[in-house]
Design brief:
With about 150 residues, this protein is an alpha+beta fold. The chain is elongated, with a radius of gyration of 26 Å. A 5-stranded antiparallel beta sheet has the order 3-6-5-4-7, with no helix packed on it. Strands 1-2 form a two-stranded antiparallel sheet. Helix content is about 20%, strand content about 30%. It has 2 domains: about 55 residues, no CATH class; about 80 residues, Efflux pump adaptor protein, beta barrel domain (Elongation Factor Tu (Ef-tu), domain 3).
């Protein structure tokens, strides 16, 4: 009888270890979202700290646009924008500028003339206004028109 009890204790200890390993293997997302990229496959061994998936927060939708050097001075934080997408040509969406890059991108190797300077572009991010009917998916191509500030 004592041998039976010892086997039960061993089985309970093995079960506790298995549950602990299962708890350690569970990954929890920091926010609700959708999986955009799966970096690992089921059953694959993963090192600590290695990414498993890339998540997209569907409540934080924004579009990166590029503004030419000769127009960046007319862009301001909070400026309104109209967004048009190929996937929904009959709809337009609203947004606001929330980021303006401080460094030009796609710079030619050696900018020497005024004509070449207009080839410089600055990254600008436009956040799509919160709207329950917004059905833009991550990566959807879109055209963005920055609206002139409303003045007196």
């Amino acid at each position: 009888m004592e041998a039976q009890r010892a086997r039960v204790r061993q089985a309970e200890a093995a079960l506790a270890r298995a549950r602990a390993r299962l708890d350690d293997a569970e990954a929890t997302a920091p926010f609700d979202g959708v999986v955009a990229i799966r970096h690992r496959e089921v059953g694959e061994t993963v090192s600590p700290g290695a990414p498993l998936v890339t998540l997209r927060d569907l409540d934080d939708r924004w579009i990166r646009i590029y503004v030419r050097e000769d127009a960046i001075g007319r862009v301001s934080l909070g400026q309104e924008a109209e967004i048009l997408s190929d996937s929904h040509p009959d709809r337009s969406y609203r947004g606001r500028v929330f980021f303006i890059g401080s460094e030009a991108e796609f710079t030619p190797r050696n900018v020497q003339t005024a004509e070449e300077r207009v080839r410089l572009v600055y990254p600008v991010k436009v956040r799509v206004a919160e709207d329950p009917d917004v059905d833009l998916k991550p990566g959807t191509p879109a055209d963005v028109r920055l609206l002139p500030p409303e003045g007196p």
